[in-house]
Amino acid sequence: MSVPGDCERISPILSRVGDKWTVLVILILSEEPKRYNQIRREVENISQRMLTVTLRGLERDGLVMRRVFAEKNPPWVEYSLTELGHTLVEPLLALCKWASTNYLLIEENARNAEATCN
């Protein structure tokens, strides 16, 4: 089986969407638009810096939209998935299901490989 497309061009995209923080943020935003602190509460153990970096990257790539509500007092920001971002939800859910189904076998294989190396 060959990899579709130009590996050099798709590698950065796969790195972006395969990042654990990206996966979690996309899945959380698939439910509904959320404010920064709502996302931070739902993504356990993410630092403020990492969440900011992740959201900026997703916004830059056109997967997440940032909307400022300046008329609110105080002003606030809401994040939501773009149309492109929504197309990523189904593949990510399939990957999560696969990982959930196979994590015990993968952990066992890793333990066996480690034991063989020692």
From TrEMBL:
Annotated keywords: DNA-binding, Transcription, Transcription regulation
HTH hxlR-type domain mapped to chain residues: 7-107
The protein, known as: Transcriptional regulator
Native source species: Pseudooceanicola spongiae
Source species, domain of life: Bacteria
Pfam families: HxlR (PF01638)
Keyword Transit peptide listed: no
Keyword flag Cell division: no
InterPro entries associated with the record: HTH_HxlR, WH-like_DNA-bd_sf, WH_DNA-bd_sf
Residues in coiled coil: none
